[in-house]
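#struct-help
A.M.: can someone run this one for me? Single chain, 92 residues.
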Amino acid sequence: MAVFYGSDCWQPKQIHEIKDFLLTARRKDARSVKIKRSKDVVKFKVRCSKYLYTLCVFDSEKADKLKQSLPPGSFLLELHLYGLYDVNEIFK
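D.P.: on it. Structure tokens below:
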């Protein structure tokens, strides 16, 4: 049985600065980085031992530069979230 003392224990954390996200992604306990692309925003999620840290980027050029700045040894998974019409356009 688990006992939680705080309301935000094990909750995901949002990072607002790119520099802070890069430092978090380079930590020893960072296991993987996921990139979720949607129409408006690109979300970078880094899984550490205790928390999942998220950075939201609204500029696609900044997102591409940030992807190139990630540590080379990290496990990277990129997901594209398309609407129904976008998927139909892709498979024509």
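A.M.: thanks! Residues 12-69 form a domain with the Signal recognition particle alu RNA binding heterodimer, srp9/1 fold (CATH 3.30.720.90).
D.P.: also worth noting: The helical segments are 18-25, 60-69, 84-90.
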